[in-house]
Amino acid sequence: MIKHILSELGLPPKEISVYACLSKLGSAKASVISKEVKLPRQTTYSILNQLVKKGFVMQADLRGVRRFGIDPKQLSKMIVEKKNRLEKARQSLENQSLAETFGTERIKTFPKVHYYEGSEGMKRLLN
Fold this sequence. Notes:
7 helices; elongated
């Protein structure tokens, strides 16, 4: 369930697995997380830094050791924010026509197409 939610929020698979690991562990060092998700430690650090930048993960330095953790309430806030952004986008689309949005004129008429099949079609085409 949590993986599906994170995917809907736009996280790639590796970030999802690191976040899911943190949701089980609570808070942990990157080395512990990297062993759990079976990724190199440096890759795990990069992923954790991305998650911190995106606001999914918190970082704390305790006596020179970086620990990472999550706040489940933060995920709920992010879902609400995304919902609000999508609602504003929907309202904006309703207020503008698609032609105005994309800067193109609407096509008022469609080209006429004639189909000719078989020998009767060829006769009609040649006449």
